[in-house]
């Protein structure tokens, strides 16, 4: 199943998978970097506020811990603003920002004692999750220990990260679509030479060219050169086969003609029975030679990449010839069909197939033979009808059976229906025999269309 998937689809699917993986990985890394950067920046800002708060702490003359000045950040003065501070002392009430109003911060129980800034998680008003930075400091001559905490609502950082994530996803989606379009364009351009090669091969198959034409990229040109070499070799083999078949035909027909003349001479000289027997055997030998030579030539020609042969014009030419041959019987040959119908193969093979079918129809017809040519889904269909006695169904099956030659059943020369069927089969076609819609026999020949 996978072998039938188009190369373009495979390349685009592979590119889409790798792009999706690369963009997903890039998005994950960028989002992580942004989150770390946002957290670092928030930590730096909060630590600055923490240092400002620590610097403002002092011990009043009455022994209370007070702020020499309020922190300047406005959100510390807005109730439930999401930014808070609190100063916890071992003895005495805690100091806290106005933004906390009457709420409290829930902090880890253990307080750092090293004086360094520590980031911890906390719970603020309305059970909101907070990010907190705290430091333990000593002030006053008595070394009073204070726990100073700055906190901010975590949802603000999460909202910033979520907004960046949405923008990042949209940007990467647009980038991915653009990259996939660029890949599709590159694949299309890269496969254009293959499309040209396919058109060139179709031209060769349909007989419009003898070799693959055109110039191709370095990766494809060796394949094209090899194809042209194969085509040239096949054409050379075909020419040799035709030449040898022709030579063999001449070599055999000359002695047969001599034997035929000798048979006639014997009949004239008074040995009529011997002359007739010899003449019949020579005729049978001639038909066998024609049959086997036609089979040999058809085996070499039909499978080859062929040309384009007009069908209706061939039928019309054969009908004129056959009308003269059967003029004494007064047989009328009617031809009708599609002028554009063309057979993908050799003219001589088409003439042999149609000539045999039409000649048989003329021999058995009472007065009329009708030949029609049509096209149907890549096929050319030729129907030959006669108004003769027809052929019984069991005899039709016998004639079309494997290995049976009609020339052994019916008088006459030519290839016979068995050879017509064999030629048609070599071209990928079929021959069927059946009753004519009116009376007589219908032979239906179906061949590949050019």
Low-confidence stretches: 401-414
Q: What best-fitting shape do the alpha-carbon axes yield?
A: rod-shaped
Number of domains as seen in the coordinates: 3
Q: What's the story with the biggest beta sheet?
A: 5 strands, antiparallel
Question: What is the CATH topology assignment of the largest domain?
Answer: Heat Shock Protein 90
Compute the number of strand runs. Answer: 14
The CATH superfamily title of the largest domain: Histidine kinase-like ATPase, C-terminal domain
What structural class do you assign from the helix and strand content? Answer: alpha+beta
Q: Report Rg.
A: 50 Å
Give the CATH level 1 class of the largest domain: Alpha Beta
CATH architecture of the largest domain: 2-Layer Sandwich
**End-to-end gap:** 29 Å
Helix count? 8
Please render the helix and strand layout as text.
Elements: H1 7-56, E1 57-59, E2 65-67, E3 83-89, E4 95-96, E5 118-123, E6 129-139, E7 144-153, H2 154-205, H3 221-268, H4 272-301, E8 309-310, H5 311-325, E9 332-337, E10 342-343, H6 347-364, E11 368-376, E12 379-386, H7 393-399, H8 417-426, E13 430-435, E14 441-448
Parallel strand pairs: 9-11
Antiparallel strand pairs: 1-2, 3-4, 3-7, 5-6, 6-7, 8-10, 11-12, 12-14, 13-14
């Amino acid at each position: 199943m996978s072998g039938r998937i188009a190369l373009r689809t495979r390349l685009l699917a592979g590119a889409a998978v790798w792009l999706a993986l690369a963009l997903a990985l890039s998005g994950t890394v960028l989002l992580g970097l942004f989150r770390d950067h946002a957290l670092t920046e928030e930590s730096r800002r909060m630590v600055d506020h923490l240092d400002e708060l620590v610097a403002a702490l002092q011990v009043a003359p009455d022994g209370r811990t007070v702020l020499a000045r309020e922190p300047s950040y406005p959100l510390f003065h807005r109730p439930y603003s999401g930014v808070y501070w609190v100063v916890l002392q071992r003895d005495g009430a805690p100091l806290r920002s106005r933004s906390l109003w009457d709420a409290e911060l829930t902090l880890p129980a253990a307080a750092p004692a090293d004086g360094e800034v520590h980031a911890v998680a906390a719970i603020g008003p309305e059970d909101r999750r907070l990010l907190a930075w705290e430091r333990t400091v000593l002030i006053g001559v008595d070394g009073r220990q204070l726990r100073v905490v700055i906190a901010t609502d975590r949802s603000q950082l999460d909202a910033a990260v979520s907004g960046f994530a949405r923008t990042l996803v949209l940007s990467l989606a647009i980038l991915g679509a653009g990259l996939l379009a660029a890949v599709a364009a590159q694949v299309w351009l890269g496969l254009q030479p293959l499309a040209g090669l396919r058109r060139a091969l179709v031209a060769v198959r349909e007989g419009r060219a003898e070799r693959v034409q055109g110039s191709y990229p370095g990766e494809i040109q060796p394949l094209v050169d090899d194809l042209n070499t194969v085509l040239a070799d096949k054409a050379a083999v075909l020419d040799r086969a035709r030449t040898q078949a022709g030579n063999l035909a001449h070599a055999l027909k000359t002695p047969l003609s001599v034997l035929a003349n000798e048979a006639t001479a014997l009949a004239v000289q008074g040995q009529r029975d011997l002359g007739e027997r010899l003449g019949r055997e020579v005729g049978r030998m001639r038909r066998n030679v024609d049959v086997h030579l036609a089979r040999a030539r058809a085996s070499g020609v039909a499978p080859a990449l062929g040309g384009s042969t007009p069908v209706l014009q061939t039928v019309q030419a054969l009908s004129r010839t056959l009308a003269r041959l059967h003029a004494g019987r007064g047989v009328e040959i009617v031809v009708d069909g599609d002028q554009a119908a063309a057979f993908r193969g050799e003219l001589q093979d088409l003439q042999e197939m149609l000539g045999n079918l039409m000649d048989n129809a003329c021999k058995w017809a009472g007065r009329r033979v009708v030949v029609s040519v049509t096209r149907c889904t890549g096929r050319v269909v030729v129907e030959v009808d006669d108004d003769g006695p027809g052929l019984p169904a069991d005899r039709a099956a016998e004639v079309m059976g494997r290995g049976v030659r009609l020339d052994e059943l019916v008088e006459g020369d030519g290839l016979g229906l068995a050879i017509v069927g064999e030629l048609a089969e070599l071209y990928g076609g079929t021959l069927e025999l059946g009753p004519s819609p009116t009376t007589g026999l219908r032979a239906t020949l179906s061949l590949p269309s050019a």
